[in-house]
Amino acid sequence: MRIRRYFGFRLQAILLRLVLLLSAVLAYSSLQAQGITTLTAADNGRQVQLNVGDQLVIRLPTAAPRYGWRLAQNYPGQLLVTSSHTLPGMSSGVPGAPATHEIHMQAIGPGGFDLALVSAVPGSGYFPLGSFFHAYVTINQPGVAKNVNISEYGNHGQVTVNKGDQLLIKLGTTVGSEYAWEAIPSEGNIVQLVGQQKEEPKKKKAKPGSAQEVAFQFQALNPGQTTVRFIYRNTTNNEAPPARDFELAVTVPEPPR
Q1: Which residues form the Proteinase inhibitor I42 chagasin domain (predicted)?
Q2: What does DSSP say about strands 166-174 and 147-150: parallel, antiparallel, or unpaired?
Q3: Looking at the 3D structure of the chain, how many domains does it have?
């Protein structure tokens, strides 16, 4: 009888150890599956590819520990800020910076956007970064098409989208202006312009001279590389040179097999 109890206790102990070991392995695998990407001032303008569940850490220099950085806008349903603090002496990608502001974020949903940060107090950013930092962020989720939004901050940048994704490019214009954005046909059959619309005023009719955005919507059709181009041209004088231009390099990778 005592022998049976002894072996029974031993078996329970072995099973408990196996359960604890399996739990540790699963927890470790989960952590490995959630990647961590860290950006510093040296990565200003970089393109970042994340998966849902990944963490993004941004470390930027400040002129003093009491200063910091803030997001130029929120990204609901896509990117969530989980912590933010300023510490002296941490690496920010700028040698000699007095302090570093570290922001932790987590990718919670598919999409793409210009991630822009500005110094919370004008002029408190540390040279040579200045008071503005941005990166092109795309968040992927297997089997889910995403909407990638690019503003004029993305001019002369690059972005990667998957086949079937929607790419929305928003460009600034002026109400009542004789200038308008015109899309230049892109080479190949990689992305296709499927729509164009102007930002509608929320309440009152927009006054001439006020700022307005026009949005161009593309769809990624086939793998390859192309450049999407726009010119801000005078609609009343075809001989006048464009006042501005915009271009974005677009890559559509081969889908996984």
Answers
A1: 160-250
A2: parallel
A3: 3
